[in-house]
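User: New here, any thoughts?
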Amino acid sequence: MRIKIAEKAGFCMGVRRAVNLVLRAVNQGLSPIYTYGPLIHNPQTLELLSKLGVKVIKTPEEGQAGGVCVIRAHGIPPQEKKVLEEKFKLLDGTCPRVLKVQALADRAVKEGKSVIIIGDKDHAEVKGILGYCQGKGYVVSSLRDLEALPRGTPFVVLSQTTQDEEVFELLAEEIKSRFQDVEIINTICNATEVRQAGVRKLCQTCEAIVVVGGKFSANTKRLAQIAESQGKKVYFVERPEELPLEEIKKVGSLGITAGASTPNWLINSVVDLLKRHTSKTYALLRSFAISQSYAGLFIPILLLALLLIKCISFSFSEITFLLFSLFFSTALIFLVNFINRDTFPFFYPERTYFYLSRYFWLYLTGLFVLSIIFGLLYKPRILSLMIIFTLLSFLFKQSPLQGGIDILFYISLLLYLYPLWDNQLLLLSSYAILILLFVKFYLEMVYLQTDGFLPKSFLLAFFDFDERRIKKLLKIILIGLLILPFGLSYFSLANLLFLTSALSCLLLYQTLLKRKLGQVVYLELLSLIPFASFLLVSIILRIW
């Protein structure tokens, strides 16, 4: 079965901003935290926030005075906002595009005009906009509603930001034909238009469409309605478990889209369930990614590359050293992930199952035993590193330092290459550290883009999980990777060859900018490319 994911789906800018406001407040330790009404129309996200201690209040009278209250993306009437400001520390999560509609309604009333809102009268956003109309607002959902509009009144026509474009155009034209003084302003959010255009595009090439999102989300329901209007079989699900797998397996091509209030981690879960039941190749790659075994290759690959460049003839000592680094690097990753296993449901639910399975302890025990064996065969004193870093894994719990523990381990292993130290090794080791650091931030950014809640044990916590600041840091590391090869005292083929590693990191950065949906497994495995490139260069130089 061919699975195609909409280019644009999931959280829109406004929803992501509101959710991030709440998550930032949680990370800052603020308490108590409330949302005025459900933050977004997605039960899984609301469940996640509830587990983090965020409570929903429906009236200003609820909640503890002095607490933090977040206004949801849909916005609220100004009268309610004023009452909330007097009782709580208010964080306004109203979508900037909704704020614009509210401002347009307010201006129209001040100019002596009445406001027509094309939308759903019971929708929170529409109720919020009506609050700015001072009794001069009218909601139109169908042609029938036009009969109740007063005559001889100048109108400004606005739209609920998640309204269907075709419905808006139809009703707006009808209003214009019936009334003389009418100003029409299309306030449908571009994100809504793009998602609706995206599902229409999917319908051109797919036999059936899966729509992921809350059943009470207006924009998500519209995506399902559009697909149905195109004559497609639609599977509208809130959770992956709701998918009728046996029925879907008979479909030749399947499109997947999601509403603006659907987090990326939920889209990932749906795509993951479908692919692992329809693709054996994906199932194999998934097992490698879910356990994060691939990350255990990072350090031994870098060490192998350095030894190749130094033209070392591989003796028993070097081989046991590399095998120790392989097994304990993987064991360290498994251990850190196990310590943080309670955080995976908040951004990567699929990984939770591996670290709670009975097989995990078998793998971890085997890795530690193999680490001890090859450590003893290399140099018994290297086992002190095992003890130190095992203890640090626990001591750094809920600290960003835990996120960089494998980098510290790599630097510690470099000390065992002391007899080989020279300017070239120092430069190349620094280059390798930059690659390792870049990939660490890349992977954490992949998880950040799931729209979930990341633990404080991530390096990103140093930057308050601010995506803009992290992207700036990645650019700085990229510049370092591009410049450092020319730090060699002479120009050689090595200078140019090592640029391939920098270019592979640039490829990863460009991938991040595209915010790929439902692709976590592939995005994780792409992190091996810079290391493979570094190793390939070292092999070429060794042969050269």
The first helix runs from residue 13 to 27. The domain at 98-188 is CATH 3.40.1010.20 (Cobalt-precorrin-4 Transmethylase; domain 1). The chain has a mean pLDDT of 91. The two ends are 46 Å apart (CA to CA).
